[in-house]
Amino acid sequence: MTHIRFRPPQSDQFLGLAPFLRMSLLKKDLLPISQQIFAELETQANNPELLMNASIVMQIYNHNQLAMEAQEQALEIQRTFYLPAQQPAKIRLLVLSTPGDLAENTPIDCLLEGWDIDLIFYYFNESPIVWDSLPDFDIVLVASCYSTTHQALFQNLSKQLKNCPKPVLNQPQFIVNTERSKASQILQAIPGLLMPPTASIHRDDLMNIARFKDTLNTYFNWAEFPIILRPIDSDAGKDLEKINTPEAITDYLNQVEDTSFYLSNFIDYADEQQLYTKIRIVLIAGKAFISHLAITTDWKIHYLNAEMEQSPEKRGIEQNFMENFDQFVQKHKVALDGIYQQSGLDYIGIDCAEMPSGELLVFEIDHDMIVHGMDDETIFPYKPHFAQKIPEAFRELLIERMD
User: Fold this and answer.
1) How many H-runs (helices) and E-runs (strands) does the chain carry?
2) How many angstroms separate the CA atoms of 291 and 258, rounded?
């Protein structure tokens, strides 16, 4: 199959995230296309495609309130957006999404950029889905991530999907398994897998611990310092911090205004060189694929802050890991199989590490992780071979379920 690696975005079409992510990763200037979108909005203020594109641009530039206003305006006009394949389409995938920021839904367009798959995004709400009114589609992906605000929507969607005329991937009743406390519960008994217990806690209870009115064990018999705190529904490491003492809770709460948080024990996964390595894996119908590996001196690791581009040594380690990934999969087969079985999801990402003791330490499982093949091939020449395997497997899954 021939792949079109990059198609310059056209401002008057619905773009999705993929072209902006590609331009960012390849260090291309986003300003010209952004200015073009806003210039066209001046004369086409009610163009829903332009409004959705503007919403994405404003999120990239951290103007989130304006972004949500633009998105809301677009969805008042229409709820279906079309992203055609970049070559003759063989599959029409209906992507059921919820309104919200870029972290709310599986960024499937980033995974499938350049493939022969039409993407039909439908932003559902509490209203009934009239299947016959949607563009023709072959199969459905539920892209919406779990959120405390989505519970009623998911229950309603589960009922509506019973009448869906086509196969459905990532059924909403299983997406709840990605919620952090739920995930920690269902993965606890899997041999060879380590995931710290995680539970929600209210701000007032944290203040009681900070003031020595209560202890961690007042609320959770497994908890001990150091702990990790993050707000409920936060993503991408936002306001994620390690807390070493009760007093430090006060400092943290002075910086974060949220009322509900996730609390878990901190597990030190540094190697002998005091380096931290995080691995992103994708399971497609239970089969594991490598997305990336990142190395840094900071436990709070993301691929971008690991500065892999600046380090040939780190890239060499990532390349070696990718080339020997089958050995890693075989070593952790029981753990990976357990994640697939317990999650119930057809497509799911795993952020994890390997403990010095050999266990698979799982940080998070979710279907909304960014997975792509857009890295600069002059810097990461080894990546395309492995990156292509993921959309290939996803395409095979679509065809298999369609039959």
Assistant:
1) 16, 14
2) 32
Burial of 41 (0-12, 13-18, 19+ CB in 10 A): middle
**What are the phi and psi torsion angles at 50 (to 5°)?**
-65, -40
Going by C-beta distance under 8 Å and a sequence separation of 6 or more, which residues neighbour residue 106?
A: 95, 141, 143, 145, 170, 347, 367, 368
**pLDDT per residue of the chain (403 residues) written in tens, 0 to 9:** 334 444 555 556 899 999 999 988 888 888 888 899 999 999 999 999 999 999 999 999 999 999 999 999 999 999 999 999 977 899 999 999 999 999 899 999 999 998 999 999 999 999 999 999 999 999 999 999 988 777 889 999 999 999 999 999 999 999 999 999 999 999 998 999 999 999 999 999 999 999 999 999 999 999 999 999 999 877 766 789 999 999 999 999 999 989 999 999 999 999 999 999 999 999 999 999 999 999 999 998 888 788 899 999 999 999 999 999 999 999 999 999 999 999 999 999 999 999 999 999 999 999 999 999 999 999 999 999 999 999 999 999 999 999 7
Residue by residue, DSSP assigns 302-362 as -TTTTTGGG-HHHHHHHHHHHHTHHHHHHHTHHHHHHHHHHH--SEEEEEEEE-TTS-EEE
**228 neighbors 264 (Cβ within 8 angstroms):** yes
Q: Which is nearest to 362 in space by CA: 244, 309, 283?
A: 283
Prediction pTM value: 0.93
